[in-house]
Specification:
By secondary structure, the chain is an all-alpha fold. It folds into 3 domains: 334 residues, Glycosyltransferase, CATH 1.50.10.20; 85 residues, no CATH class; 151 residues, Alpha/alpha barrel (Glycosyltransferase). Strands 1-5-4 form a 3-stranded antiparallel beta sheet, with no helix packed on it. The radius of gyration is 25 Å and the shape is globular.
Length: 666
């Protein structure tokens, strides 16, 4: 560990700061107690927590479009959605996809279309401003494939210019160079219902006054909107574009029996995953909405039990706030509960505290014991793991599983032998997902074939499930806490992966949180937990990078813009969650008296609210980089508490909070 007298490296462009006074233990104790009580007040009677996931306006826009496509407009819900959309219009007339971001073409067109469908005239001032902004951004032709498909359903974009999504792909065997299990789980869940929709093309005609001719730049409405080819002749993109053209040419003479068989298999696949055990297809907004449209295209009656279940699951995403109706992309109870257990336990709650025991039992009851989609790439024989949502048995993930296991290690249940069996089973499942490059991805193993990113319908930047430094480091953190032998090959390969993915400036990319602050924090914390010498040069470069982007107010912040513009990494308005992450990363490197650590603590102490929480408007969660972001409302409440607890524990000489479970003899 770094000593208390370690030299502070001066970095170009970073103002030299006066060393702040050391934080008093009484201040920390008071802040921790307030934060603890804030979390306890929000615990549900059965022991779990769930915070809201806050996103951009596109979900409400999509829902308005869906109601008009279905011909079933709930006027009350539509008014609520319109109010939501109007409140989020920017000064330049457009809509963005994260707090503080610039206007974005897909969000802006969808918002404009929803408002027009709801009855607003294009001549209203705010609609004129929106239209001018959309045209500056390039209009409808600049939208991505998935957004254009929603327009096509309402007759506002030609189907012939959309990439074919052949439903026959569901029949391709697992050994084929391409099949539905070669792509990410979330893309798979979106594409299967879209393939059904692509077959039927269930277009609803709109009256002239509801159409979007004005959102095509002058002279382009009759253009050929075929996707452009690469200049080089032989590229994967050009190959797929030629294949797309051939598929469309052959469609009139295709085998009707093969198409029917494919539709039946796609329907079976989708229906199975909408049914019992899941709160909708993949329990996530895009797949759920697509599946509802696909069921209607398949002529499921409105009163059919499956269709009614799909609608009910979808309505479960609604936040019926009378002041601001919202739609969540999914629900996060497992994730929120696990982090809150860790924050409370590491901040001093005893392992047998009733609140922690109730939470742990709730988590235990949510273990997924079904061998499902992940088995196509991972032959591990025994199912385990946890999903993000309440019920999503087809898609447990490694991120939630690692976090849940780190939480369960801190709770002493009444029946310890049962927890030990669950822990061992889930840990084996987690380890089985290590990919060929030594890292961990979220839902699948080795779904990393980069040529798939050139498929015409892959422009949502999420066709793959790549290995991530943050997930890899979180798994190392778990292994370190339970005493796993750091000399084992699984650990050595993971550390090599982290070394290979470190950026030149010392930081790490964050896939599931914004962004380099998130990735760098998690790597440093994971390396300390697994027993790495934190004085190694490559590790200290990560610490120095974190220090280099500390703001003048002592906090840290980073905008989602850093995903598109890496020169913005580590730059942004200070937030509670990102300050907490950076602070934990610095603490992991030792030397708790460093000015950067003390200033970070001071920022959290001075910005805490009287109720124990922190304010945070900014978006610090990542869904799909450059495409979709989300704000976890719990992050401003649990991560600052965990950061304060981490500092106190390290100051007291506790490397990490004592674990109930030890991986003895491994």
């Amino acid at each position: 560990m770094g000593s208390a007298t370690a030299k502070i490296i001066s970095l170009p462009g970073v103002a030299k700061q006066t060393a702040p006074r050391l934080t008093k233990s009484e201040e920390l104790d008071e802040a921790i107690a307030l934060a603890q009580q804030n979390l306890l007040r929000q615990q549900k009677p059965d022991g779990h927590w769930v915070g809201e996931l806050i996103v951009d306006s596109t979900l409400c826009s999509d829902y308005v479009l869906f109601m008009h496509w279905a011909g079933e407009v709930d006027e009350t819900l539509q008014r609520s959605c319109v109010k939501h959309i109007r409140r989020r219009q920017l000064a330049d007339g457009g809509w963005n996809i994260y707090y503080g971001g610039a206007s974005e073409i897909n969000a802006s067109v969808k918002a404009y279309f929803a408002l027009k469908l709801a009855g607003h005239s294009p001549n209203e001032a705010f609609m004129r401003e929106a239209r001018a902004n959309i045209l500056r951004l390039g209009g409808i032709p600049r939208m991505n494939t998935y957004s254009k498909l929603y327009l096509a359903l309402l007759g506002q974009f030609p189907w012939k210019y959309l990439p074919a999504i052949p439903v026959e792909m569901v029949l391709l065997p697992s050994w084929c160079f391409f099949n539905i299990y070669r792509i990410s789980s979330w893309s798979r869940a979106m594409l299967i219902p879209l393939a059904i929709i692509n077959h039927f093309k269930p277009t609803r005609e709109l009256p002239e006054n509801k159409q979007l001719h004005e959102l095509y730049p002058v002279g382009t409405e009759g253009d050929d909107f075929t996707l452009p080819r690469d200049q080089r002749l032989f590229t994967w993109r050009n190959f797929f574009l030629r294949a797309d053209r051939i598929i469309k040419l052959l469609e009139p003479i295709q085998s009707k029996s093969l198409r029917q068989r494919s539709l039946e298999e796609a329907e079976r696949w989708m229906v199975e995953r909408i049914g019992p055990g899941s709160d909708g297809l993949a329990a996530v907004f895009p797949a759920m909405l697509n599946s509802i449209i696909a069921l209607r295209a398949l002529n499921y009656a409105k009163h059919h039990p499956l269709y009614q279940k799909a609608l009910k699951d979808f309505a479960g995403l609604f936040v019926c706030d009378p002041d601001d109706f919202r739609i969540q992309p999914c629900l996060s109870p497992v994730w929120d509960t696990a982090i809150n257990v860790i924050a409370l336990a590491e901040s001093g709650f005893p392992a047998d505290d009733p609140a922690l025991q109730r939470a742990a039992q709730w988590l235990v009851n949510k273990e997924v014991r079904v061998r499902c989609d992940w088995t196509m790439n991972n032959p591990h024989p025994e199912a385990s793991g946890w999903a993000f949502e309440y019920n999503n048995v087809y898609y447990p993930d490694t991120d939630d599983t690692a976090m849940v296991l780190m939480a369960l290690r801190l709770v002493r249940p009444n029946e310890q032998s049962e927890l030990a069996r669950i822990f061992e089973r889930a840990l084996a499942w987690q380890l089985s997902f290590q990919c060929c490059d030594g890292g961990w991805a979220a839902f699948d193993k080795d779904v990393t074939r980069q040529w798939l990113e050139d498929m015409p319908f892959a422009d949502h930047n999420a066709i793959l499930d790549p290995t991530c430094s943050d997930l890899t480091a979180r798994t190392l953190e778990l292994l370190g806490y339970i005493g796993y032998n750091p000399g084992r090959p699984v650990v050595r390969r993971a550390i090599r992966h982290l070394r290979e993915t470190q950026e030149d400036d010392g930081s790490w990319y964050g896939r599931w949180g914004v962004n380099y602050i998130y990735g760098t924090w998690q790597v440093l914390r994971g390396l300390r937990a697994i027993g790495q010498d934190m004085d190694q040069h490559w590790i200290l470069r990560g610490r120095d990078w974190l220090e280099s982007c500390q703001n003048d107010d002592g906090g840290w912040g980073e905008s989602c813009a850093s995903y598109e513009h890496p020169d913005l990494k580590g730059k942004g308005v200070s937030t509670a969650s990102q300050t907490a992450w950076a602070l934990m990363g610095l603490c992991a490197c030792g030397d708790l008296d460093r000015p950067s650590v003390q200033r970070g603590l001071r920022y959290l102490l001075e910005t805490q609210r009287p109720d124990g929480a922190w304010d945070e408007l900014e978006t610090t969660g990542t869904g799909f980089p450059r495409t979709f972001y989300l704000k976890y409302d719990m992050y401003r409440q649990n991560f600052p508490l965990l950061a304060l607890a981490t500092y106190v524990n390290y100051r007291s000489g506790i490397g990490h909070y004592q674990s109930f479970y030890r991986w003895v003899g491994k």
